[in-house]
Amino acid sequence: MERKGIVAFAFGAPCTIESNKLIARIASQKAHESGASVYTQCDVFIEHGIEVEYTHEEPDSPPPPTLRIARGAVQWAKQQGFRKLWIVAAKPHLKRCIRDLGKAIRETEANIGIRACEEIEYYPQDGWFCLNSTQECTRYKEAWNRRERILQLMPFFLYKRIAG
To answer: Which of 54, 67, 118, 138 fits a disulfide with 12 by CB distance 3.0 to 4.6 angstroms?
Structure first.
């Protein structure tokens, strides 16, 4: 049987905002259904009884960039022997999560397939933004789109430098 993991990307902070609770719920449900482990951030609380690896985050620092999380997830997947990763992310963030995870896989020449959890599509694009997020870009669709356009159009060699 093919071993699978789940990578859950937070969308804003803290863990109590609706977007992160939804990401945690989708990831936890997928983990229960498939017996998979989860790689995620501190702002995504996965249900008890599920094996979870948290990405390294510095206290009182901004959350790690998407590419850094993706690279950590690929290293974790390789160590665990996973051949497939399910992605759980907010719908507005999904395209970049897929791109960054794919790039991280190619960087390491790993043989890992990726697939987005279809449950993400059950929720409207605008429903992921939370006014009480501590990250301004995840409060409003307009702020997110401005930032995302820049990050998507930026040459990848520059994006990599920003992501560390």
So the answer is: 138
